[in-house]
Amino acid sequence: MAxxxxxxxxxxxxxxxxxxDCWLIISDKVYDVTPFMDDHPGGDEVLLSSTGKDATNDFExxxxxxxxxxxxxxxxxxxxxxxxxxxxxxxxxxxxxxYNQDKTPEFIIKILQFLVxxxxxxxxxxxxxxxxxx
Length: 134
Description:
Transmembrane segments: 107-127
GO cellular component, one term: membrane
Protein name: Cytochrome b5 heme-binding domain-containing protein
Largest sheet: 5 strands, mixed
Low-confidence stretches: none
Subcellular location: Membrane
Keywords: Heme, Iron, Membrane, Metal-binding, Transmembrane, Transmembrane helix
Strand content: 5-15%
Structural class: alpha+beta
Number of strands: 5
Shape: elongated
Helix content: 25-40%
Number of helices: 5
């Protein structure tokens, strides 16, 4: 790999997040993968989903081959200033709907789901009984 070309900030790298201009941060190094977008086996969506963050875990989780790692050299453009990379985001659970203690509407729906078919069947039997010819 060539000598480190330059040190880039996270804000600078995160602006390159489009199909025609895509940079990734992998292992504290910045890669311009724009020319590789069409050739990536996982498609360009995979690369785009890794922009705007440290993509090291995404890259390592896939288990890329040695050939893929060697290919990265031609896309290398510099190092990331690690002090500008934000801390890893923690998972925030989505807000849960309020708990419905009485469950009245759900109870009524369940009863109706049971009673309506029985009423229809009973009505059909009554109609058949009265319309039956002797």
